[in-house]
């Protein structure tokens, strides 16, 4: 698992709240690690603390205590979390730990016995109780008001929108259901109300996230919620349609390729939802997928991809894969490479398999030697880069709509509809960018392409 980019580390990037601390106001810092779902948890915790009269510190030293929201998905992520806890202890000394790694409190206290408290993932009340114990609140009812849009740890023009918690899948390499539980979907009206407030506050892009976005509402039996004088069903298709009416870009992440996903594609063709699907295929050989306890219909998936693209030719497909999974033979890996050649996915990430404490895959026979995993990773990424470069080269000369993320003295860093923040590429404007600001949506003509990024001129 790659480490978080600096923009997702509030201890480095700073929480996006004004520093307007009053004298004597209790102050809390936050370090947020892991996936965007954890980032949403961090935002909710900070919003609750702000409502109780706490200030949010932009650094360790200005805080009365620090919350570290951890990741525990892979051993490398656990190591990063322990390192962040140690750094917070060294810089501040008063540390409360929460998040996925908090499901293993002995693991944390064994390495860092001086932490004040350890809570598990999405245990907001327990985190608040720990903060109250360490730093009692001291609200001023005339000054400390509930922030209208909450505390944001992302740039103001985009926001993650979490629609559910947990997962019902039983993939052998994954322990997320053990840490975060089974699928629990939010009511549709609650999600739409939050999205409406975000858009009203200036958010231009909503990034829909969960552990299994396509399964949204299954646990609720796709019940109906009152909305705008009518009703909306707790189903990803209905939810996406309503989100698309709010006027912001809507991007779907972590979408499993269930048959009903094809119902989303017409919404993309109509422009209601961005033509972008983030689907975790993980592998392509049926035997490998069976050992993963994943759906093993890679051939039918190719047919589905062709059908999606027939309806929406502009569709961008992003996915992640695991190489070196226990038992993976050279022939199985070659099948994955051949499948990638046929699928021609636009955005591809790859991980080398590693054991995770508690995962059933640890006990599988035929573990692949590290040097073989590295060699397969290199071959996989070489092919993925070549596909990406060829697809981006086809965009030279085309006019694309982009959203501006950052502007400095050298140019504007933007993203096309095919690019999610932090995980995909960028489009750079190095001429005529004067007057642009983050959140602006403009048209550009692409004049250069690389393996992952584009360059263009503003029209």
Automatic annotation (TrEMBL):
* Obligatory cofactor(s): [4Fe-4S] cluster
Q: Where does [4Fe-4S] cluster 1 bind?
A: 35, 71, 100
Q: Which InterPro entries match?
A: Elp3/MiaA/NifB-like_rSAM, Methylthiotransferase, Methylthiotransferase_N, Methylthiotransferase_N_sf, NA-bd_OB-fold, Ribosomal_uS12_MeSTrfase_RimO, rSAM, rSAM_horseshoe
Record organism? Tabrizicola soli
One of the record's GO cellular component terms: ribosome
Protein localization: Cytoplasm
Domain Radical SAM core residue range list: 153-390
Query: What GO annotations for molecular function exist for this entry?
Result: protein methylthiotransferase activity
Gene3D superfamilies cross-referenced by the UniProt entry: Methylthiotransferase, N-terminal domain (3.40.50.12160), Nucleic acid-binding proteins (2.40.50.140), tm_1862 like domain (3.80.30.20)
Q: What is its main location?
A: cytoplasm
Domain TRAM intervals: 393-459
- What protein name does the entry list? Ribosomal protein uS12 methylthiotransferase RimO
What family name appears in the similarity comment? Answer: Belongs to the methylthiotransferase family. RimO subfamily.
Q: Give the lineage.
A: Bacteria, Pseudomonadati, Pseudomonadota, Alphaproteobacteria, Rhodobacterales
State the CDD domains in the record.
Answer: Radical_SAM (cd01335)
* Cofactor, how bound (note): Binds 2 [4Fe-4S] clusters. One cluster is coordinated with 3 cysteines and an exchangeable S-adenosyl-L-methionine.
Keyword Kinase recorded:
no
Domain of life of the organism encoding this protein: Bacteria
| Protein role | Catalyzes the methylthiolation of an aspartic acid residue of ribosomal protein uS12.
